[in-house]
Amino acid sequence: MARDLRIVTISSWEILKLHFFTFIFGIWIICKMSAKWIWDPKSFFIHQQRDNPPACLVDSSLGQHKYIKLKGVKFHYVESGSSDLPLVLLLHGFPDCWVSWRHQIPTLSQHFRVVALDLKGFGDSDKPSSRKTYRIDMILEELRQLIISFGVSSCIVVGHDIGALLGWCLAHQFPEVVDKLVVVSCPHPNIYRTNLHTSWNYRWLNFVQLPYFPEVDALRNDVKIITEYHRHLPANDTFLDAYKYAFCRKEDWTGPLNYFRNLLFIEIAENTRTIQVPVVLVTGDRDKFIKLESIVKSTDFCEKFYVKIVDGAGHFPHQEKYQQFNEILLKYLVTRNVPNGLERSPSKGIMNRMMGAVSSTVKYGNSVLDTVHKKTNGVVGSIPSIGLLNYSNIYEKTDS
Asked: Which pLDDT band, with edges at 50, 70 and 90, does 47 fall under?
């Protein structure tokens, strides 16, 4: 794409591998789906009718529901806080919508003008079905125009999952519109594809490259995929029902899946500068989708960064441990700047709390220390040996 080719297409060999595994895994999952349908067709297509949105999706207590049209696409967002305050743009993940940030909007709106967006293809925003309308250059240009439409030249971007992936790309492609970046449960685009937590995740990402079948599969067993992703919500939770309403039709899945159908084929060009604005990387130590190592590796693409591990949280730390997560946001967005490099912070009992989270990181040994040494201008270069004790000085976890 244009603008110094900061975002480029992956190599032909990587594209060929993706298509090959798409075919292999696609055939396997389709056969599996067919066997389940033949065995019990009634239970396979269990689907509860949902005609009216739950009250929480249209509730205005968190902010005003507004719409804006950019290049013929209607975007829905919820806005809260004074328009005189700095802008914070919240970008949700998959499968989600603006309500993902229900715990953050009231807290942030005391200090910022907060906009919680429904990404294109999600929630009450338009849902074009064409895959090409979800190309990364189009998405980023729409986000840039959205920011400018609020009468500001730049803002703080907070993203989770897919929203964080877009935040990474936006900070590279249009660095002038990003003041600070907070990425939640998402490694850098150049790390994402090759650092999935399990082989199931990899198979699923290959499967969704197929047309039609992934949308049908998402709807089976009363949108079971929603329950699987949002396991932190009780079975009778109002917001779980809201998510199932938001994704209860086949067309509700085409747009979200189109992000994966495009984003897996792009990466940041090798000659691109590291992100110059402060970056806060937040992850849960129990995330079953994202490896801690991938978050560590992602710091290579940041000039100023801070890694925060939320103890006891999975893939949705902003919902599962929202009080601790909000403290992180206020700490680094309101009361202080992100330090240049990884901050060393003593923490009571940190050895015990870090044992599980860092055990899989130790194998990176010198490569991690090299990263830390580079980013901190040698501050921690004198660490004598590789071990858990050293990592406890590098990473800070928030109490559960």
From this structure: low
d(CA 106, CA 78): 12
Average pLDDT over residues 241-268: 94
Q: How far apart are CA 203 and CA 200, in angstroms?
A: 5
Asked if residue 27 has pLDDT above 70, the reply is yes
Q: What is the pLDDT of residues 268-320, one digit of tens each?
A: 998 889 999 999 999 999 998 888 999 999 999 999 999 999 999 999 999 99
Radius of gyration of the chain (CA): 21
Reference 390, options 340, 350, 348, 341; nearest CA is 350
- Name 297's Cβ contacts closer than 8 Å, sequence gap at least 6: 187, 188, 191, 195, 364, 371
- Please tell me the distance from the alpha carbon of residue 392 to that of residue 358, in angstroms, as a whole number: 9
Mean pLDDT is lowest, of 134-143, 167-176, 304-313, 328-337, for 328-337
Burial of 296 per CB tally in 10 Å (0-12, 13-18, 19+): buried
Amino acid at site 345: S
Cα torsion through 269, 271, 273, 279, rounded to 10: 40
Lowest average pLDDT, out of 74-83, 88-97, 188-197, 383-392, goes to 383-392
C-alpha count within 13 angstroms, C-beta hemisphere, residue 359: 7
Beta bridge partners of 267: 8
CA atoms within 13 A on the CB side of 81: 21
The residues, any chain, with a CB within 8 Å of residue 57's CB and separated by 6 or more, are: 97, 99, 123, 124, 242, 245, 246
63 within 8 A of 78, measured Cβ to Cβ: yes
pLDDT tens-digit readout, 346-386: 333 333 434 433 433 333 333 344 444 444 444 333 333 32
